[in-house]
Amino acid sequence: MNFSAASQVNAIFLLVVAAWRVILLILFLSRAAKLNEFEVFVCSFLPMTLIVTLLTSLNLEQAVFDLMAGLRPAQATVNDLAYLVLLMITSFSILTFIPLLLAYLYIIRRRHTRTPG
Description:
Elements: H1 3-31, H2 37-57, H3 61-69, H4 80-113
Helix pairs in contact: 1-2, 2-4
């Protein structure tokens, strides 16, 4: 297997592992924490948008992707589609971080002020 094909397979496995972790987080939040659908959505996507937003603010999103996918900077033109997807995820994360944070704070306040029983 050549390096380009190996890098693509590595990126696919990275996607599978990331999706598996998100599924596990969603299952945990819905079953163990007993959150409703809106709360599960907010509590599962807020940490992901926080991570992507912080990596973007530090200008590390491409470096982290390159490191995890096994890509080298000299091959950046070969992986333009991967960078386009990364740019879309980054843009989505930056745009949704504040609304998700506000919703998360609302959920905490609502659960904290809820009367027991």
